[in-house]
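Backbone geometry tokens:
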Amino acid sequence: MKALKMPEELRPKLAEGPKKIFAGENPIKTVEEALNKTTCDYVIAVGDVICYTLIKAGKTPNICVIDGKTQRKEVNVEIDPSKFNKTYQVKNPAGHITLEAIKTLNKALKEAVEENLKVLIVIDGEEDLLALPLIKEAPNKTCVFLGMPNVGVGVVEVNQQERKNAEETLSKFTEVELGS
């Protein structure tokens, strides 16, 4: 299976998260504040807790990318698949972005934008890095919500500059062949 491997030197930069971070004691109020202070035609959530919190706040994301974990531990939130029109499952090991995952993300973006579908993507592995190809391909006025454990909610409002930043970051990854 072909994949892009994250170089270790990018880890600290990526761990910082996006520039726009909303913090607060109450996760639902924090998400509501983030939604009120951003202009989003489409909402994408990368992470189980942020997906769950957006749904609880009354805003089911157009796309949710989850892996059943938070900080590499099993997560205790249940995301109801019936909130979504389609569900995909794809493998994506930690520290990588598989080409299969990229294809699935692009298909989900097309379905969300062109067909107004709600799409749930369940990752076998880790979903953290998948925000990058989503930001690179999403249309303007898409907000990508990222759970930032012990910090709050990170939001990337997609525009030409954010797409360029994601593309530059992805260009530093190396293509590898993973054993199946």
Observations:
- Residues 21-174 form one domain.
- The longest strand covers residues 86-92.
